[in-house]
Amino acid sequence: MPPRGVKKGTKRERQYEAIKDSVKERGASESRAEEIAARTVNKERARSGESRQAEGRTREQLYNEARDRGIEGRSKMTKAQLQRAVDAKKR
């Protein structure tokens, strides 16, 4: 069963099924294949900003947004600092 929030017939559901089948072909159990597929899909959803998570955007996403907005010193910033800088620059 795909992760919560992945709707039937979507790209992410197809990705989940393909990964699950691939892992099972390599000899993993059904439950292990489902876990790996779900984790992979969730990771991709988070990277592309599709999922709603408590953590929000990844550091990489925040860094790229800071670069686009011309925020200086971004390479030395933590995720929390990047979040504050990007949010402040939006206003």
Descriptive account of the structure:
With 91 residues, this protein is an all-alpha fold. The protein has two domains: 1-54, no CATH class; 57-91. Helix content is 62%, strand content 0%. The longest helix is centred in the middle third of the chain and has 18 residues, at 30-47. The protein is elongated, with a radius of gyration of 17 Å.
User: What's the end-to-end separation, in Å?
Assistant: 41 Å
Structural class of the helices, strands and pairings? Answer: mainly alpha
Could you say which overall geometry the principal axes of the C-alpha atoms support? Answer: elongated
Order of helices and strands: HHHH
Which segments are poorly predicted (pLDDT under 50) over 5 or more consecutive residues?
none
Number of strands: 0
| Strand fraction | under 5%
Radius of gyration: 17 Å
Mean pLDDT: 88
Number of domains: 2
> How many helical elements?
4
Largest sheet: none
Question: What percentage of residues falls in helices of 4 or more residues?
Answer: 55-70%
The gist of it:
By secondary structure, the chain is mainly alpha-helical. It has helices at residues 11-25, 30-47, 59-69, 79-90.
